[in-house]
Amino acid sequence: MFSHKILVVEDERILASDIRNSLQKLGYSVLELTASGEEAIKKIAEDNPHLVLIDICLAGKINGTEIGDIIQNDFQIPVVYLTEYSADKQTHQKQLSEPFSYIHKPCAEKDLHFAVEMALYKHRLNQKYEAEKQRLTAIINSMGCGVVVTCADGSIQMMNPVAEALTGWRQNEAYGKDLEEVVNLIDKEMDEVIDNLATKAIQAGEVLNIPDNCNLLTKDGKIIPIGDSVAPIRDADGNIDGAVLVFQDISQRKQTEAQLLRNACHDALTALPNRVLFLDRLRQTIERSRRRNDYNFAVLFLDLDGFKGINDRFGHAIGDDFLVAIARRLELCLRSGDTVARFGGDEFAVLLEDIKDVTDATNVAKRIQEALSVPLNLNGHQIIPTASIGIALSSSHYEEPHNLLRDADIAMYHAKRQGKARYGVFSNA
């Protein structure tokens, strides 16, 4: 049968002997009695007892309370203090404040047995708790996301290394601080500070996602886009006693999303807006013109003259370079608020916003044709580009972007039938 080893540290020999006899009678294994703190430390290091009974008023260079602290902190061995007078409790309030942490002298066998068993039981529970705590800490620390745990009042209880790296705060610096101070979150669009998310999750009693467009302002002033969630922590009875914030740097994801969005809305060859983005901007312009009676705009539809011949004569690689060069020239002909898009092949469209009248649109068409008329030198080949341009002006009867494009396309084909390098303005006639 397993027998717990107990060390008795008591400088009153008769009392120490009585305690040893009682412990042995109860089935415990008692190490050689010792009367000083120095001897106690030596024996503990040699024999590693399961529990130490120690006189709290032990005489010597190292008193009982100092020995007790060393035993519990350095050796992680439970201690039960032997105390004789109630005055001891006032003098050593800190050491004797824990339940079952002491026993009065002289020790009745029943009381001694209860005190020892309770101390051993508490130690086993503490060991189990510490093991679970260490395992939980190891799991949290091994996560690839930042993790911050708060108390019920929103103050920080722990942070994992990733959270430290992202925020720039060390756990010992952040402990006890308000979450909002350490995990300083800014709404990118509103440019406003986001309130303590832990408090919000605790009040809501449910998992909350970190708001979109949320930036983390680090301790050293860096701005990092982050995302994930914050959740309330519930105890075994379902009561909320804190919150856990899980977050990660989503800079790469944001860049990927932006690139995907750009790819979806821009022409891969020329990097100009494509038909989808052009129609969206045209739709917004139509809505804007409905709110302002004096707001005029125009759509220009361009078709390059003789592009098929360029491809057939010089090859598709030169044809691609030709289209890219045309795109750059078109951009230079426009204001910053206007839009030029490539629809595919040799077709381009231009949206001119906030113009006075048809003259503004025709002047841009002329400017485009002048810019295109300058010869292009591509891989040793000189090419003089021209384009046919159709113009459709805004009016109250246009409800859909496609109708404007249709009429600009009709005007373009009308101009092309008149010969190269011409423009035409759409009219119902």
Automatic annotation (TrEMBL):
Domain (GGDEF): residue spans on this chain: 295-428
Domain Response regulatory, first and last residues per copy: 5-120
CDD domains: GGDEF, PAS, REC_DC-like
Domain PAS residue range list: 132-205
Residue ranges constituting the PAC domain according to the UniProt record: 210-262
Alphabetically ordered keywords of this record: Phosphoprotein
The keyword Ribosomal protein is annotated on this UniProt entry: no
Record SUPFAM superfamilies: CheY-like (SSF52172), Nucleotide cyclase (SSF55073), PYP-like sensor domain (PAS domain) (SSF55785)
Residue numbers of 4-aspartylphosphate PTMs: 55
SMART domains on file: GGDEF (SM00267), PAC (SM00086), PAS (SM00091), REC (SM00448)
Transit peptide in keyword set: no
Gene3D superfamilies documented for this protein: 3.30.70.270, 3.40.50.2300, PAS domain
Stored InterPro entries: Biofilm_reg_signaling (IPR052155), CheY-like_superfamily (IPR011006), GGDEF_dom (IPR000160), Nucleotide_cyclase (IPR029787), PAC (IPR001610), PAS (IPR000014), PAS-assoc_C (IPR000700), PAS-like_dom_sf (IPR035965)
NCBIfam families the record matches: GGDEF, sensory_box
PANTHER family: DIGUANYLATE CYCLASE DGCE-RELATED, DIGUANYLATE CYCLASE DGCP
Protein known as: Diguanylate cyclase
